Amino acid sequence: MNSIETKDVHLHYGDFHALKGITMAMKKNQVTAFIGPSGCGKSTYLRCFNRMNDLIDNVKITGEILIDEVDIYAKNIRVDDLRKHVGMVFQKPNPFPKSIFENVAYGLRVDGISDKAFIEERVERSLRHAALWDEVKDKLKKSAFELSGGQQQRLCIARTLAIEPSVVLMDEPASALDPISTAKIEELIHELKKDYTIVIVTHNMQQAGRVSDSTAFFYLGELIEYGKTKTIFTSPKDERTQNYITGRFG
Ligand SMILES: Nc1ncnc2c1ncn2[C@@H]1O[C@H](COP(=O)(O)OP(=O)(O)OP(=O)(O)O)[C@@H](O)[C@H]1O
């Protein structure tokens, strides 16, 4: 079953044509990786899925994007509801200046939930799910800034999971982390796909190879090739994919 489907998506930043007719479908409970040289449109495309590009002036998007069969650019869509359904984790961990507990509880409180037991249960579950609970359970009231970078990133993942999204978008989630924290995030991604559909932008091809089921290669705003990760990395059909994965450019 497809979780995300896009048809002929074009995006312009003013006069600049950043996405050129992207049609692809991403399966539910799978990890899809976006790879390609800097500036090819990976993040732009990812940001279409939770309408983050709406925040940028002068952006024009055409085509169709369906998430769990709903047209997310339809007039009746409320963007804050969409962002609950489609969570996002950024390159740099961005915890709020609050306690560890309150970072995870934040989305629930914004949603108007005040039941203390419910919030406590959901915070614990989300921290466990993000493989952070054991490291923080005795210091939930401490500031999130006291955590290491890798822990902060897992906290941000827990914060995203707390509002029970269906899709989790990750824009280079490990690029600011050390190798041990990166390995933890990769392990976590593997676990999370049981419950979520994950789309990850990465510059690290080994990482794409390790974590993803499918890989899409982008070049100059176009989707060049998309398929099973193994196939893309071992027998790509397009010469540009071949050149990229063998390090000849990018
Ligand atoms: N807010 C913006 N306004 C104008 N142009 C933009 C904006 N954001 C991105 N672009 C341009 O769109 C193109 C695609 O950028 P995008 O960030 O999606 O690429 P990317 O493949 O994710 O790159 P990287 O791997 O370096 O993050 C680039 O040429 C970039 O300069």
**Uncertain parts:** none
Kindly report the average pLDDT value.
95
- Give the overall shape: globular
Radius of gyration from the alpha-carbon trace, in angstroms: 18 Å
The class by helix and strand makeup works out as alpha/beta
How far is it from the N-terminal to the C-terminal residue, by CA? 33 Å
The helix/strand series, from N terminus to C terminus, equals EEEHEEHEHHHHEHEHEEHH
**The CATH superfamily title:** P-loop containing nucleotide triphosphate hydrolases
Tell me the strand percentage band: 25-35%
Residue share in helix: 25-40%
Any idea what the CATH architecture is? 3-Layer(aba) Sandwich
Name the ligand types.
adenosine-5'-triphosphate
Topology, number of strands: 10
Spatial arrangement of strands, main beta sheet = 6-7-8-3-9-10
Properties at a glance:
alpha/beta, nucleotide-binding, 10 helices, globular, binds adenosine-5'-triphosphate, 250 residues, Rossmann fold, PstB-like
